[in-house]
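Hello,

Our lab assistant flagged a job as stuck in the queue for most of the afternoon. It eventually completed. Since we weren't sure the result was trustworthy after the delay, we are filing this so someone can double-check. Below is the sequence as submitted and the structure that was eventually returned. Let us know if re-running is recommended.
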Amino acid sequence: MADSFKPPPSVRAAAIRGLMLRREQSKSQKAGLDTKQASAQGIGSGVQRASDLKSGAALSESTVRRMKNYFTRHASNYKLDPGKSPKEDKGYVAGLLWGGDAGRGWANNIVARLDARRKAGRR
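-- returned structure --
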């Protein structure tokens, strides 16, 4: 059976905060792609990821790896820019949608553990 991973409360809380801030952004400015738009472009949506994290349902290994990759690619974008409020900073909100700092740490730890297990010859 494939591994699955349940997001901890801190990751769920970041996703919930991200969804709330994104709704606030939507009222005053274009707030990125919605799930349907992202799907049409063949890319994952932070809104979908946040919905998954918020639900607390177990995530697949491939999803956790996508989370790690998101944070690696956007390392300079997901921190709150000085002088901006959280709802003004789209990169910050996007990072929260993927679980924020808690999500980054959680995904990195899982991937490191899985990679070490594979390297040792265990699945």
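-- support follow-up --
The delay was a queue issue, not a problem with the job. The result is valid. The helical segments are 9-28, 35-40, 46-55, 61-73, 90-97, 100-119. The chain has one domain: 4-119.
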